[in-house]
Amino acid sequence: MPHHALPWRRRLLLSAACALLACTHAQTHADTWPSKPIKVIVNFPPGGAADQIARAVSQPLQEALKQPVVIENRAGANGNVGGEAAARAPADGYTLLMSSGGMVSVNPHLYARMSFDPSKDLVPVAAAARVLVFLVTKPSLPPANVREFIAYLKANPGKLSYGSPGNGSSPHLAGEMFKSQAGVFALHVPYRGAAPALQDLLAGQIDYAFDPGIGLQQVRAGKLRLLAVGSPRRSPQFPDVPTLDEAGLRGFDADTVFGFYAPAGTPPEVVAQLNAQINRALALPAVKERIASLGGEAVPGSPAEFHQRAAADSQRFGALIRDRKIVAD
What we know:
Blueprint: H1 8-32, E1 38-42, H2 49-65, E2 69-73, H3 80-87, E3 95-99, H4 102-105, H5 107-110, H6 118-121, E4 122-131, E5 134-137, H7 146-155, E6 161-164, H8 170-182, E7 187-190, H9 194-202, E8 208-211, H10 216-220, E9 225-229, E10 256-263, H11 268-282, H12 285-293, E11 297-298, H13 303-324
Parallel strand pairs: 1-2, 1-3, 6-7, 6-8
Antiparallel strand pairs: 3-10, 4-10, 4-11, 5-8, 5-9
């Protein structure tokens, strides 16, 4: 007998049985998860802030979940390549994405078309770190502070260059924010990641950068000069270094939050377990110190809080992208 010909009571019982079976299956999955290795896609190259944060968290996460946590770098298109790979992965809790907040809050404003929708195809799992950007220059440049640097840029319009991990990356947006508020012009040189930009800055191929923390070791070694922090408050790592707000660029805030996402449809119970374990990892002294070495700070919290921060950043950076007419590669 065809399904549509079944008496309505039998159809109702059949529907209820199917719903119960689906619910039981989902609960069984949540109860048995994790039963195999978990892959964390990092959508930027090795050596950058996202990569270092993912590796710092992955070790305690692996110990807590008693399963291997494998890092896979999938760089390209300002995070979109890795983001799409995560969005298209099975929503079973075995694939995560570690990304800067820019993929969710910046890229939809930057790209006319994207192959996926970060706000619909991914769900926030846990914020990991608030990453600051540091205005650093090569030591051979004469300016010793922000006011001297702005004056030097105005005296040499278009003669200086700055690097970033790519068009639309948070260091690039910080650079555009700086040029806009300071009323200066310099050539932007996009790279495929923060590490290559840092290498060229150290080699003197470019003049300055807004570094997402990976160059602080070179600052301490005297190989780079740190002029200011692009955050609303000073860095605990460099308490004597002023913020750009203090240096006269009022309201300057280029901070971004890095965190973990999962494919949309990942069971809420699994997301909750991941959030709890990532937050536990972020509370460990070794992880906090690793993030602090990048000039950032661990920011444990709920998925909802992570989502709210991304939404606020989307409004802020979206306005800057429109104002500066920034476009993707």
